[in-house]
Amino acid sequence: MDLDSGTSSTVGARVQAIPGRPAQHGALYQFKQQNLPACKPVLTPATVIATFLLMGFIFIPLGLITLRASNSVVEIVDRYDIECIPEELRSNKLLYITDDSISKNCSRFLKVPKSMRAPIYIYYQLDNYYQNHRRYVKSRNDKQLLHGLGDNSTSSCIPLESSGDLPIVPCGLIAWSVFNDTFKFSSGSSELKVNRKNIAWKSDRNHKFGKDVYPFNFQNGPLIGGGKLDPNTPLSDQEDLIVWMRTAALPSFRKLYGRIEEDLDADDVIVVQLMNNYNAYSFGGKKKLVLSTSSWLGGKNDFFGVASLFIGTFCMLISIVFLLLHVKNPRPYGDAMYTSWNKKSSSS
Amino acid sequence: MKRYVYINDDESAHDLYCDNRISNRKYTVLNFIPKNLWEQFSRFMNQYFLLIACLQLWSLITPVNPASTWGPLIFIFAVSATKEAWDDYHRYLSDKKANEKEVWVVRNGIKKLIQAQDIHVGNIVWLRENDEVPCDLVLIGSSDPQGLCYIETAAMDGETDLKTRVIPSACMGIDVELLHKIKGVIECPTPNKDIRRFDANMRLFPPFIDNDICPLTIKNTVLQSCYLRNTEWACGVAVYTGNETKLGMSRGIPEPKLTAMDAMIDKLTGAIFVFQIVVVMVLGIAGNVWKDTEAKKQWYVLYPDKGPWYELLIIPLRFELLCSIMIPISIKVSLDLVKGLYAKFIDWDHRMVDLETSTPSNATNTAISEDLGQVEYILTDKTGTLTENKMIFRRCCISGIFYGNENGDALKDVELLHAVSSGSPDVVQFLTIMAICNTVIPTQSKTGDILYKAQSQDEDALVQAAAHLHMVFFNKSGNILEVKFNSSILQYEVLETLEFTSDRKRMSLVLRDCQNGKILLLSKGADEAILPYARTGQQTRNFIEAVEQYAHLGLRTLCLAWRELREDEYREWSLMFKEANSTLVDREWRVAEVCQRIEHNLEVLGVTAIEDRLQDGVPETIETLRKAGINFWMLTGDKQNTAIQIALSCNFISPEPKGQLLSIDGKTEDEVRRSLERVLLTMRITTSEPKDVAFVIDGWALDFALNHYRKAFTELAILSRTAICCRVTPSQKAQLVQILKSCDYRTLAIGDGGNDVRMIQQADIGVGISGREGLQAARAADYSIGKFRFLKRLILVHGRYSYNRTAFLSQYSFYKSLLICFIQIFFSFISGVSGTSLFNSVSLMAYNVFYTSVPVLVSVLDKDLSEETVIQHPQILFYCQAGRLLNPSTFAGWFGRSLFHAVVVFLISIHAYAYDKSEMEEVSMVALSGCIWLQAFVVAMETNSFTILQHLAIWGNLAGFYAINWIFSALPASGMYTIMFRLCRQPSYWISIFLMTAAGMSPILAIKYFRYTYRPSKINTLQQAERLGGPIVSLGTIEPQPRPLIEKDVSTLSITQPKNRNPVYEPLLSDSPNATRRSSGTPFDFFQSQSRSSLPNYSRNCKDN
Predict the structure, then answer these.
(1) Which residue in A83, A104, B339, B681 has its CB near the most CB atoms, within 10 A?
(2) Which of B1023, B1046, B1062 is the last residue of a domain?
(3) ipTM score of the complex?
(4) Which of A130, A146, A156 to substitute to test the interface with B, most B CBs within 10 Å?
C-alpha cells in the first residue's frame, strides 16, 4: 500500500468533480438539495402596520356599504301563530290545531312602513323548528323523488317509508311534514297578485324532482303530518314541496312562499287571509309571515355591516397600537443579535 | 448446560443442533399477514381507526359514508405492509447470499465443496487464506508448523490488527491427511454471546492420542465473520452454527425505533382522544336529554315512544363518529410521506457525499429523521470514525534534529533526504530500527511490489516510511532479515525477540549484524518506556521536548534506541531469557523482568511521530455540535493513551488547565469503587466551575461499574458531558448506550466497525460510517455517512429541519381536524344535539385527503433559517432538543387557534346565511370554504420561506377546491348540484369569506408580529438578522470557522459555554433534560422532578413559541 500516493490522490479527488455527479443546476437538482429559490417574508413593522391599516380601510367602507344595502331593504315581519288562535282556545293550542272542526281561518293586517318595490318576496318563517335534526334530514330518498316507484329501496325514509305494501311517494319525514299554511293578500279592496311559480330552484325542478312522479299515496297513512299534495300534479311542479325539501341548516328559517309583483306604497295596509293549518304549537315553535324586498346582498341582514365595521375598527386599532409601540419602542431588527447568546444572559 | 460436539460424526448431532442457516428475517410467507397486522394493530392509533371504521358500518349511527374511513385505512395498512415486506425480502436476499457461499467441508472423510448453510455442528471446515469464517470453529490444524494462524476480527470487534490463534496442544503435529479422519468430542458451553471466553475441553479418540482432556480457550477458536489472513490454510470443527454462533447470539433483533416526536404525537393523540371522549359523553348525554324533553314534542321527527334497548347509545356513538375526525387519519399518511422525503433529502444531499469514495449518505431508516434534531448524546467510536484509520509517518527527531517540522511530512523533508543520501550514521541506524525492529512480514506480490503484513498499523507505517527513505525491508526468511539500503543488501540474524506487552510498552530485538558479526539490541517503545533507560550521560531533554511537541499535535510517538551488546553479555542474558520463557508460573512477569536486564543503557536515537490522521473537519464538527448542546462520549476498543491523545487532538477534551481528565481505574472491585466515588465527588464539585471535566474509564473498570455500581455510574454519566471509555467490548458499548437511554436522553451512536453494530442498534439513532472496516456498521445503522464531519450537517441541517417540519405538520394536522370537528360540534347545538353532520361525506373526505393535506405537505420544503445560519449558530438546536416546537403548550396554542377559527367560521356562516339563505348545503359549503381559506392562510403564515412549490400548493389548492366543487356542482346526481355556482354568484358569499379570513387571521397576525418583534425567540432574532442583512450575515459568509481557531484555544469556548447557556436559556433549559438533571443531586430523583417540573415549564414556554 502506497501511503503517500494515497493521501495525495485524496487531495486530487477533492478538486475534481465526481464522475457521475449530475448537473448542479436545474429545478430538480435544486429541489433535491432543498435549494429552490425562496422568498422569505419578514414581518417588518412597516408591512404589518400597513396591512392592518389597509384592512381597516377596506372593511370600514365595506361595512358602511353593506349596512346601507341592508337598510334599503324593507321588511315586514308578522308573527301570527298566537294571534290567530281564538282567545278562548289560547290555553289549549294543541286542541285548536288538532281539531279539524275548528276553523283555521285568520286575518292579519300589515302596515307597509316604507314604500316597497316589486318584487316583494313572501316568506313564511318558522322558529325553533329543527329541519336539521339528524332523524329528519336523513329521512328522504332523492332517487325516489326523481324516478318515482322505479326505485324501491326506501329504507332511508325510516320511519315513513311505506304505506301498506307500496312505498309512500314521496317518502320520508321531510315530505310528510310539508308546510301547509296558506296566505292570500289584498290591499284595500283589490286582491294582490301573488306569483307562486318559480319559487323553487330551477335546478331542483328540472333535475331533482321527477316530471312523472305523482304523489298518489301521500298522506294516506294513519299518521297525518303536514300538508297534502295534489295527486295529479307531478312532483316537479309541486314547488311548495320542493322549497320545503331544501332543508334549512338553522332552527330559524324562512322559506319562499311567493312573490308580489307590484309596488306597495308606504302606509298601505295589506290584509292577509291565512289558513293556520300547520302545527307549530306542540313544540313551541313560532310562525311568522315575512314580506321583504331585496337588495344586491339579499334580504335584510345587518350582520355583514356590523361585522365588517367591527373587524375594520379592530384592524385600525391594532395598527395604531403597533404604530405607537413601534415609535415608542423601536426595535432595530437583527440588531447585533449575537450579543444575545451571551450578553442577554445578564438581563434575562 | 453443556454441548457435546462429536468431531466428524456425520450422523448424530444433525437434529440436535441447528444447521448453519443464518436468518435475520422477521416474517415467513405464511405468517406475514397475521404477524404484520398484529404489529400494526399494536399501535393505539391503528386500533382506534379500526374501531371507528367498524362503527361506521352501522348505518344508524354513521354520519357519513363508511368508505371515507375504510379507504384511507386500507391504503395506510397496505403501504406499511408493503414496506415491511420489501425490507424483509432484502434481508432474505442478503441471508441467502451468505447461506449459499461455498465452503470446503469434510464429508465422509472426503473434502467437499458445500454451501455454508449445510454445515453441521461437528463438521470439519477447511479455510483458505482470506476466507471468511462461516461459523464458530475450534481449530484443529493449520498450515503453520507451529500451529498458528492469523485472523482478522474487524467484523467482530472492529480491531484491524491481526490476531494469532493456535491449534490446541492435542492436535499439534497431526498429519494433514489424518485430519480428515480425526474423531473426538468437544465439550463446550451452550451458545452464548461472549466473544472473549470459550471454556471448553477436547478429547480426541484413539488412535490419535490417549484419553487426555485438552483444555480449550478462545485462543483455539476462530469465530464466524472473521477472516483468515497470512495463513495458507486452517481447519477447524464447527461448534456453533447458524444463529447460534457468538456473533449471531450477540446480533440481537433490532427493535423498531420510535422517535421522541412520535412519542409526543402519540401522547397528544391520547390527550385528544380523552378530550374527544369527554366531548362525546357530554354531547351524548345532552343529546339524550334533548331527545327526551324536546324531540318527543317535535311531531315531525316522529320519535317512537319506545326505542330498541341500545337506544341510549345511539346518540353518543353518533357523536363518537362525528368527532372521530378529531384524530386525523391523514396524519399517519402525511408523516410517513414527509419522513420518506426527509430521508430522500439526506440521500440526495450532495454536500454529504464523500468525494474520496463517491459514497453518498444514506438513510436506511426513513422514520427517525426528527430524532436527529433532538440528539443530546453522541457516542462515538474512535478508530475509523474520528480518525481515518490510516497511520502515516509524519515527523521524526533524530539526534536532536527535527525533520518534517516545516512541511509536516518528514518523507518530503529535504534535509532528511539529504542526510539519508549522505549516509549519516545516526540516521541510517534510525532507519534500520524503523525497518526491522518489528514483527512485520514482508511478502512479494507477483508484480514485484513488496507488501507488508503487520499486526499493528504503527509498525506498518514505520516500515513503509523506512522503505520510502530507501531502507527497504524486503525479505524475512526464518531468522534472517534482509534489508536493502541504497542498492546494498544488509542481512541481520534475529537472535531474540522481546515482545511488546502493554505493561512494558516497548519491544526489542536482539540480532546479529551479519556484515560485521556484532550483536545489537534494537528497541522501540513509548517515551516513558525508553527514555529512562537511556545511556548515562545522554541528554534526553531534546527527546522529551520532541515527544511533547508531537503529542501536542496529536501524533503517536515512539522512541527508537539501540545499543551494542558484548558477546558474553548476550550469552549470559540469553540463558536467563530462555529459562524465563519456559517457566510455568508468572511467565509474563518473569520474562518482563529478564528483558528489563538487557534493555538499559540505551543509545536513544530519536523519536518518530505517526499520525492516525483525524478525518477532515472532526474538531470543527465536535466543536459545533458541542455548541449545539450535544455531549460526546468516546467509546473505543483502543488503548487509553491513544484514546486520550486523539481526544485531545480533536477538541474532545481540553488539556490542562482548562480541562480536567479524571480517571477511573482499578484492578479489583474495591479499587474501582473507590475510584468511581472519588471521580463522582470531583464531578459534583466541579460542575459549577467553568471547567471541561471529563472522565476516562477502561473496559475492565467499566465492567465493575456497570455490574455493581450502576447507580453511581449513572449519576456520573449524567454529570459528565464528556467521557472516554477505552478497551470496551461491543456489548459494553451497547450497555453504555442503554444507561444514557435509561435517563431519557436521546442518544446517537456513530461507528464504523462491526464492533459498533450493537451500540448502533441500541441507540436511538445509529449512524454508520461506510469506511475502511467494511460496511457492516453502515448496514446496521439508521444512517450511513461517508465521513464523520457530515454528522454536523446531518444533525444541524437535516435533523433540525425535519424536527421543525414535523412539528408544524403534525400540529397543523390536528389543527385542521379540530377545526372542522369543532364546527360540527357547534352545529350540533343548533341541530337538536342529534348528531347531524353539517358537511357531506364528499366534503369531509376531501377535506382531509386533498384540501388540507396537500398544502401542508410542501412544508417539507420550509426552512425557518438558512443552512448557513444554522451551522454558524448551532446553539439554535436547543429549540429542537428541548422539544420547544412540539409540546403540550404549543399544541394548546394550535388547539386554541382551531377553536377560535371554528367559532369565527361558524358564527359568520350562520349569521351571514340566516333566514331565507339558511339552506343546508349552502351553509355547509360556506363554512367549508371558510375553513379552506383559513387553512390556506394559516399555512402561508406559518411558512417561513416560500418557494414556487409552496405558492403552487397553497394557492393552487384553493383553486383546486373550487374546481373540485364546481365539478360536483355540475353533476346533477350529486347532492350539491348547482350549489357552488349559486354561491360564487352571490356577493354575500365572498363577503362572508372575506370576513372569515380577516377575522380569523388578523388576531393571529397581530400576535405573531408582536411576539416576533417584542418577544422574539432566538429563531426569530436569527431570522430577522438573516433576512434583513444584519451584521451576522456579513460575518457569516466565512463558511467554516477559520482554521487557526481550531487549535487549542478554541476549547475555551466550549468550556465557558455551559456557564453561559444556563442564564440565556433559563426558560428553555429548564425543560431540557440537561438542566433539570444536572441540578438534581441523585440520579433517581430527577425522574420525578422532571415530570413534576414539566407542566409549569410548558406554560412558561408558550410565551416564546
Answers:
(1) B339
(2) B1023
(3) 0.90
(4) A130
